[in-house]
Design a protein that fits this description.
This protein has helices spanning about 15-25, 45-55, 80-85, 105-115, 130-140, 145, 170, 175-180, 195, 205-215, 215-235, 245-255, 285-290, 310-315; strands at about 5-10, 30-35, 65, 120-125, 145-155, 190, 200-205, 240, 265, 265-270, 280, 300. It is α/β, with parallel strands linked by helices. The strands form three sheets. An eight-stranded mixed sheet has the order 3-2-1-4-5-6-12-9, with helices on both faces. A two-stranded antiparallel ribbon has the order 7-8. Strands 10-11 form a two-stranded antiparallel sheet. The longest helix has 18 residues, at about 215-235. The chain binds beta-D-ribofuranose and calcium ion (CA). Beta-D-ribofuranose binds near residues 81, 127, 162 and 170.
């Protein structure tokens, strides 16, 4: 049996981050070593508390959860997405108070320590603004060489943004951090943008399967999707349902979703104060205009997946999957 993939998730524990966490816990090939949180959907403390509660719901009190940055690199407080994820980040669904405390090191230190301990084998999946990773890079410039893969849910390539016409929330909420992190020279960097996460759709039928399952994890997943679906109904989702952002990135990081199209591209982030602030700029001229490959390609950018992941996610969270 091949050893399980050690993995750290850096998140802003909203509805889809929570589903991604539960998915990773239920994925036999993954060894979730640590969770770090940052301001985004909620503040970093609430995100840490949410992560602890979600882990505990699945019986895990052994995974350290560290709290990270509450402001962006330039000191702004992000506009929390309570209209998408509810006042508590978990669709206003209440879980018992966590019994485990927030870990002592801050998020950036826990990222560095976890990478060291995994001796070059750690996979990181970042489903939130990249502030913690930028701070970790400041403290440990060798981090990119110490990490096996980094998978980032963020950006919009051919798709419009979701917080401005061109900026997606995770990149747009801290463009300076994203700019530094993407340019840091990772061994294997994958970007999972809105282009694919908006097309992998969780449906009301799948939500009903979760609710009908009867296990606490599946029921919780179904319940938190209620408010999330209500938000998506306002933004171009004709049938009741939602995008599947963070779980898709988690599945790609875990090697459980193989993209249909994922070219190696040069990516950077606009950090100016104009209307394009926070845009991910991916040089797609190679795929559209036949330009030669970019000599400085720094990421694999996922542009197509087959749309079947949400059903597999739901199966994994339901008791009948047999994982628990
Ligand atoms: C991303 O922004 C957050 O609101 C979600 O959790 C996801 O990580 C989508 O743009
Ligand atoms: Ca997120």
């Amino acid at each position: 049996m091949s050893p399980r993939q050690p993995l750290l998730m850096d998140c802003d524990t909203g509805v889809d981050d929570a589903l991604a966490l539960l998915y990773l816990l239920r994925t036999p090939g993954v060894d979730l070593r640590a969770v770090t949180t940052v301001a985004g959907n909620t503040d970093a403390a609430q995100a840490a508390r949410n992560a602890l509660q979600v882990l505990e719901l699945d019986g895990r009190t052994d995974i350290p959860v560290a709290q990270g940055a509450d402001t962006t690199l330039r000191g702004d407080i992000p506009e929390y997405a309570t209209h998408v994820h509810g006042d508590n980040g978990l669709g206003n669904v209440r879980l018992p108070e966590p019994t485990a405390p927030i870990a002592a090191p801050d998020a950036a230190d826990l990222i560095i320590a976890t990478a060291r301990e995994a001796a070059g084998e750690l996979a990181i999946v970042a489903t939130a603004p990249l502030t913690n990773l930028a701070l970790a890079l400041e403290r440990e410039p060798e981090l990119p060489a110490m990490v096996r893969t980094l998978t980032v849910m963020g950006g919009a390539v051919h798709h419009p943004g979701n917080i401005t016409p061109v900026a997606e929330a995770n990149i747009g909420n801290d463009p300076e951090a994203a700019h530094r992190v993407l340019a840091a020279g990772w061994r294997d960097l994958t970007i999972v943008p809105l282009d694919v996460t908006m097309r992998e759709r969780l449906t009301e039928e799948l939500r009903q399967e979760l609710l009908a399952d009867g296990s606490p994890v599946a029921r919780f997943a179904g319940e938190i999707l209620d408010l999330y679906f209500a938000f998506h109904a306002k933004v171009a989702f004709p049938a009741r349902g939602s995008a599947c952002h963070d779980p898709l990135a988690a599945a790609i990081a875990a090697g459980e979703v193989t993209p249909l199209l994922a070219p190696e591209l040069h990516v950077t982030v606009e950090t100016g104060d104009g209307p394009a602030r926070g845009a991910l700029i991916a040089d797609t001229r190679g795929i559209h205009l036949g330009y030669p490959p970019h000599p400085d390609a720094n990421a694999r950018v996922v542009l197509e997946t087959d749309g079947t992941f949400p059903a597999r996610l739901v199966e994994r969270l339901c008791r009948r999957d047999g994982a628990r």
